[in-house]
Specification:
The longest helix is centred in the middle third of the chain and has 14 residues. Strands 1-2 form a two-stranded antiparallel ribbon. Helix 1 crosses helix 3. The chain contains 4 helices and 2 strands. It is mainly alpha-helical.
């Protein structure tokens, strides 16, 4: 029998992963045809850890969106506030939604918009 000296042994530290990155990795594994082990290797994560994150997000109800789609350009129109704020105009009935972001940006979206693309635009505007 041999004695093992553990006093001088270096402890392996657990790596901490940001929650946003965990969600990104889990979302990548949910893409059609994706392999957990391949995605784990791409992010240099143990596949068992990725399975644990998937299980945790499924149990806690944290939404895991499908993998990010290919970025696409989305037409955006930013218009200045009208100078005359004394008399607000009567809203017109249309198929357009107007979203004000941060008080200085306004995004108008028609009825045929792509929800994922709109989310990306709003995320970018929020970070400005």
């Amino acid at each position: 029998m041999s004695d093992v000296d553990t006093n001088g042994a270096e402890r392996r530290r657990n790596k901490r992963w940001p929650d946003a990155l965990k969600r990104e990795i889990v979302a990548a594994t949910l893409a059609p045809g994706a392999s957990v082990s391949i995605v784990a290797r791409q992010y240099d994560v143990n596949a068992n850890q990725v399975f644990a994150w998937r299980r945790r997000y499924r149990e806690t109800g944290v939404p895991t969106a499908p993998a990010l789609s290919t970025p696409a350009l989305v037409p955006v129109t930013i218009t200045p506030e009208p100078e005359d704020k004394a008399a607000p105009a009567e809203p017109a009935h249309s198929d357009t939604i107007e979203i004000e972001v941060g008080g200085d940006c306004r995004v108008r979206v028609g009825s045929d918009f792509d929800g994922r693309a709109l989310k990306r635009v709003l995320d970018v505007l929020r970070k400005r």
